[in-house]
Amino acid sequence: MLYIISIILNFIVGALKPKRNQLIGLCGFGVLAFLAANVDPYTTTDYANYQAGYVSAPLGIPSVFEYGYTQLGIQAYRLGLGYSEFRAIFTYVAFLILVIAIMRFTSNISIVSALFGIMLFFNLTTQIRNLMMIALVLLGLSFLKSKTPIGILIFIVLDIAGAQIHTSGYFFLFIVPFILVPQRLWNRLLIIIAVITGIIVGIVLVGGNNLFVSLITTSLSFVDKGSLMHRLTTSYSRGTRISTQLLIIITSTGTSWIAKTITSQYQVMVGDVKTGQKLSVLAVASWMSLLSIPLILLAPDYSRIPRESMIFLILIVAIYFEKASQFTSHAKQIIFWFMLLVPIFIYTHLIIWGPQFIESIPYLAHLSF
Asked: What pLDDT score does 15 carry?
């Protein structure tokens, strides 16, 4: 019940009082953090796998998880922490980093809390490595707003740190070259992304998954820690159903288009340059969902990238509500399309992770005991 009250309250406050809701928004994220940190071990999917890895890694048994996450677990184990305690601390720290990153973009915390709670919370509570990874990526992204060398360096460091928790973080390094492209060339950039995506899709369709996997493993060999190559050549190259591919293409294209359109409709002359910079970096980051489409052909596991890219669009929507008067009327129409995208996005990422995950949702929200 606490989950439902928090989501409804934050959504209403975020839409009606977008400039003065930090306290309620922070309380909303506090509720989500508490729920995520105190899950039921028996109803949460992946819990048993995480727990087994936590216990076995200190014994010298090779871990299937990334080096950074494994080392954190080993140190916590040596300090005498049980897995549930380690997971709770890990979750609270991830939410803290996430909230700090969000506050560097917008003061409309409530709408972000509500949208995050219905669109991303359940997946990221189940896959806590992804939660920490995207929190670090988003924090790094907040330093890219001014596009300075030091800002780029901080982003790269935090992104790589996130990739040590979950390797999908490496994909977000593509943000760096794209962020340097002036906004007036965005249409050309999107065409380039579409062409690159099309070429890669062609490689997969003509040469099969194995050829594409070989190209990826070769290009990423300098960051390989062993587990990455193993997953790419086994579970991460088993193919994806056509229906799932279509849903990902629809949601990824929608995410990128809505982010680009809303950002383009921001009136810089009326508003402020800093807000324009925030919108630009978030819009470019959201395009990672579009760029990741070829990976979906390999395995549904890669849906993590377009799923986590949604946080960038959520922040753009929060900024829109916060500064609605500084956007054109056309941008207001785009918000309608975002509201249509929300249920499609939720449905897509429910069916990808299957019945067991869906059945766990009432327990993750603490609606069932």
From this structure: 85
C-alpha distance across the termini of the chain, in Å: 12
Give the pLDDT confidence of 323-368 residue by residue, as tens digits: 887 787 777 788 888 999 999 999 999 988 889 999 999 999 998 6
C-alpha 101/C-alpha 135 separation (Å) is: 7
Among 281, 291, 316, 286, residue whose Cα is nearest residue 180: 281
Give me the torsion for CA of 238, 244, 247, 252, rounded to 10°: -10
Angle between helix 128-141 and 149-163 (nearest 10): 180
Q: Is residue 266 pLDDT above 60, yes or no?
A: yes
DSSP for 112-170? HHHHHHHHTHHHHHHSHHHHHHHHHHHHHHTTSTT--HHHHHHHHHHHHHHHTT-GGGG
What pLDDT does 130 receive?
A: 96
C-alpha to C-alpha distance for 279 and 18, rounded to whole angstroms: 17
Amino acid at 152: I
Quickly list H helices, the chain: 2-16, 22-37, 47-56, 67-78, 83-103, 109-119, 121-126, 128-141, 149-163, 175-179, 186-219, 227-233, 242-264, 273-286, 288-291, 293-296, 304-322, 329-364
To which residue do tokens 């399309």 refer? Answer: 337
How far apart (Å, rounded) are the C-alpha atoms in residues 259 and 301? 24
pTM: 0.89
**Cα(319)–Cα(357) distance, rounded to whole angstroms?**
32
Whole-angstrom distance, CA of residue 10 vs CA of residue 30:
12
3-state secondary structure of 327: strand
Residues in the chain: 369
Residues 6+ apart with CB under 8 A from 249: 293, 296
Q: How many Å apart are CA 255 and CA 249, to the nearest integer? A: 10
Contact (Cβ atoms closer than 8 angstroms) between residue 331 and residue 316: no
The DSSP output letter for 271 is: S
Tokens representing 188?
A: 């050309």
Question: Hey, CA dihedral for 354, 131, 286, 257, is it positive or negative?
Answer: positive
